[in-house]
Amino acid sequence: MSERRGHPGPEAGGVRTVTGGASASTPAVVTGIGIAAPNGLGTEECWRSTLAGTSGIGPISRFDASGYPVRLAGEVPGFEVAAHVPSRLVPQTDRMTQLALAAADWALADAGVDPQRFDDFEMGVVTANSSGGFEFGQKELEQLWANGPQYVSAYQSFAWFYAVNTGQLSIRHGMCGPSGVTVAEQAGGLDALGQARRQLSKGIRLVLTGGMDASLCPWGLVAQLPSGLLSEQPDPQRAFLPFDTAASGQVLGEGGAILVMEPAAAARERGAPHLYGEIAGYCATFDPRPGSGRPSRLLGAMRGALDAAGLTAEEVDVVFADASGVPESDRAEAEAVTALFGPRGVPVTAPKTMFGRLSSGGAPVDVALALLALRDGVIPPSVNITAPVEEYRLDLVTEARPARLRTALVVARGAGGFNTALVVRAI
Amino acid sequence: MSAFTIEDLKRIMRDCAGEEESVDLDGEILDLRFEELGYDSLALIETTSRISREFGVQLPEEELGEIGTVRELLELINQRLSVRS
């Protein structure tokens, strides 16, 4: 525990900071990746689309959205449930869990891990969730309303629940070690990775981690409308334009990524086929309450993650931005980036311009893409940004850019004041 | 009144609780326990709730708690159906 640089707890002013630095013994490395994203089902499919600048944002097709002010979203294409999920689990799972089960299978296969060869209590599961099983829940509420309680599925008892992805993954793969769930809207996906890494530092052998959300149903959409953050722009190429003068809000998406994380030494020892990179630093902060007059703590999270990794800003090769798409939030993030790196001091990208904001799944996808960027020496682009706000002074990457990459900073903010930053570093 | 058959049960189980990969529901299952078929208590609740709705038969929880094998469930349902008719 001595390597921990901080503890959850109140600081002066009630602002919370949680950090984690490099483990004294062995770094936590990502050895397996499974992505389900609107521009690609499967890791390499998503990566290819992302490098090509292919967007997955389009008209909502999963239900009739013609009566809503928001009619665009990022939908995961071509997911055949029966091909990816055992039939015993299909009736008891929401789409977000079905996607998580599939992505976890891919991540484990990618890592060359057969969970049966590990001790049950040496493996944990820590995932993030933000929405719960909205589509499943809507169906059961409709049954309750139209037909009565005896028509509500017994599986509703857990299928809607934030913790259900962690639970189902734990049961399916016999992973009985320390497990948990983080809920911090869009930031929760990084918090899950931070918590997974903490478990490894305590001696756990393997953690399945990441985040998955999928709430593209009428109830899921109307629950988001009152936030006022969603773009009502009908053109898929103009709806989600973070850091652009035409930024008009956010686009929802579904999907996420599940990763396999292990201590580097143990991964090497078992001959893991990939050591994508180290989770080198992590820091979470919580903003002061609105109206307090005190500034956002986003910069504190970014600095904290670098400090925890023992790195300086000069050593960061690329930033994967939170990229809100809401002008005030874009401005706040741009100010934090330039405060830390200087004007146009670091390449900044937002591949989520190709799939929208995936709730808890977004940041794990960014981490996965950052690791693939380190592997292939290329920064994936942000698409559709044609008129960046000049005074933000960001070096926005709008076409895939070859670069020598060793270190990436991934930033995520969650509605309600959550800020998290995480550093990935090539091994 | 037509009896509730094993085929009815298999159809409902497949539909509302799925089928374990290692289990063949079309094999000799009458004397197997539901746990041996890969169905937990929740799967059984879901299955019996569907049967109640579809066949209009009351299946009190106390009596379902006594059920171990597929045959016992079929007998309970048919007994309830005959009482009603």
Please report which band the strand proportion of chain B falls in: under 5%, 5-15%, 15-25%, 25-35%, 35-45% or over 45%.
under 5%
| Backbone structural class of chain B | mainly alpha
Largest interface: A-B, 13 and 16 residues
State the helix count of chain B: 4
Pattern of helices and strands of chain A: EEEHEEHHEHHHEHEHEHEHEHEHEEEEE
**Arithmetic mean of pLDDT of chain B:** 90
- Overall geometry of chain A: globular
| Helical proportion of chain B, percent range | 55-70%
Order of helices and strands of chain B: HHHH
Shape of chain B: globular
Account of the protein in words:
- The complex is a heterodimer of chains A (427) and B (85).
- Chain A is α/β, with parallel strands linked by helices.
- Chain A has helices at 43-52, 81-84, 95-111, 134-147, 156-159, 164-173, 188-201, 218-224, 264-269, 298-309, 327-341, 362-376; strands at 17-20, 28-37, 40-41, 57-59, 72-74, 123-128, 180-182, 206-213, 255-263, 277-286, 318-320, 347-349, 378-379, 395-396, 401-402, 407-414, 418-425.
- In chain A, helix 11 links the parallel strand 11 and strand 12.
- In chain A, helix 7 (188-201) crosses helix 12 (362-376).
- Residues 1-14 of chain A have low confidence and may be disordered.
- Chain B contains four helices and no strands.
- In chain B, helix 1 packs across helix 2 (41-55).
- Chain B has 85 residues and is mainly α.
- At the A-B interface, loops of A face helix 1 and helix 2 of B.
